[in-house]
């Protein structure tokens, strides 16, 4: 997978009113179809009085699993438009459910498509996205005299500090891509005249907000 985008929170709720009908989006990260099924069941139970609980989800490194349901709305007016929003935003491992409480005014096929796709799109925009990256966990050990300068260098070069520990030295943990590791170590070694040491640890997932 070249890029892994998902929603920023683990789950999120957003709603709007359209011609007296309530449209409520619930969206969550998932790692399996069982996760999706349990989330859908939970929302169905919470909104058992709703007229419709429409869902769509995408799962897998290559989105090989894609499911949707119109849940009683006219075919093609609800689940498919929601799935298309997930596809257009290039999201992975996400389930979306739009609950509708009918307000008495019929929207027609076009209106339903706009309502379900719009609720999904606007709700996802409100939730925000992150890019999930694979990174190496690197611990940089530095003398106290270099701590502030090192922090400034890391910040200005977009290496956020994950955690910091203090003893006789300062130990700063950052996430570095495998491709950048050699140059990263060389640059810092030269910049701080060999006073830093590096310990390369486990591979972690690192999430960066996407505007």
Automatic annotation (TrEMBL):
One of its GO terms (biological process) is regulation of translational initiation. InterPro entries: EFG_III/V, Impact, Impact_N, Impact_N_sf, Impact_YigZ-like, Ribosomal_Su5_D2-typ_SF, UPF0029_Impact_C, UPF0029_Impact_CS. Belongs to the IMPACT family. Pfam families: DUF1949 (PF09186), Impact_N (PF01205). GO terms for cellular component: cytoplasm. It comes from the Bacteria. This is Translation regulator. NCBIfam families: IMPACT_YIGZ. Residues 19-122 form the Impact N-terminal domain. Residues 140-194 form the UPF0029 domain.
